[in-house]
TrEMBL record:
Gene3D superfamilies: LigB-like. It comes from Streptomyces althioticus subsp. attaecolombicae. It comes from the Bacteria. This is Class III extradiol dioxygenase subunit B-like domain-containing protein.
């Protein structure tokens, strides 16, 4: 069952080498992610699954050792998803690559690691079912859930300014910070897509994983919107 979870943003800019001169602007987010991973380690999981956005409408497994690269962002840097051989020809999508980088940065060695890519258009019911499946993978499962909130908070944001973005992000921060699975289940895929939210499907996987297990409490560790994109860090334990 699910014993702990961490929700972290997944912009490649979280990696200092990618952010370059702008790296200090995300120092607080990086520190909060480190704290969230500490909560996962303290839960002593048997398995850690990194869940993040992927292309398409389905789901995809990424075995331990699958590499990810930041070359598409102009940096010759790789991150590997835990210890293992990966699968021939496989490469992590950007969100899982950021998750792998976070784990490598903190020296994660507390449990085996696997990755699960979730299509950004995956229907809520399918997300919930996927979460339930992941929670049943081991007696003590932890999830590292990667995803950004809206990308429409300012005029210069990737999705331009949308009046719905700030209230949407505030509700996400509240739901993740209080482990409100009902609110996460209720996220609308259409609105989320219009606001360029990458975390909707991964957060609904988290909500499904939390069903039927021990009641978890949440804490909001960080909330900000640099560059007009909502970044939220929270931990459940």
């Amino acid at each position: 069952m699910l014993v702990a979870a961490a929700a972290c943003p997944c912009p490649p800019l979280l990696v200092p080498e990618v952010a370059a001169g702008a790296a200090p602007e995300l120092d607080a987010a990086r520190a909060a992610c480190t704290d969230a991973l500490g909560v996962l380690a303290a839960a002593r999981p048997d398995l850690l699954v990194v869940v993040g956005p992927d292309d398409g409408a389905g789901t995809r497994d990424y075995p331990a050792g699958t590499p990810g690269s930041f070359r598409r962002f102009g940096v010759d840097l790789e991150a590997r998803l835990g210890e293992g051989d990966g699968a021939a020809g496989e490469e992590l999508p950007y969100g899982l690559a950021v998750g792998a980088w976070l784990l490598g940065r903190t020296g994660w060695a507390d449990a085996p690691v696997e990755g699960r890519g979730v299509g950004e258009s995956l229907a809520p019911d399918a997300c919930l079912a996927e979460g339930r499946r992941l929670a049943g993978r081991a007696d003590r499962v932890a999830l590292l859930v990667m995803g950004d909130a809206s990308a429409c908070r300012t005029l210069k944001a990737p999705g331009y300014l949308d009046e719905r973005a700030a209230p949407y992000d505030a509700e996400i921060a509240r739901a993740l910070g209080s482990a409100d699975t009902d609110a996460l289940r209720a996220l609308d895929p259409g609105v989320s897509r219009e606001l360029k939210v990458s975390g909707r499907a991964p957060w609904q996987v988290l909500a499904g994983a939390a069903e039927g297990g021990a009641a978890l409490s949440g804490v909001l560790l960080h909330e900000d919107a640099p560059y007009g994109v909502g970044y939220v860090v929270a931990a459940w334990s």
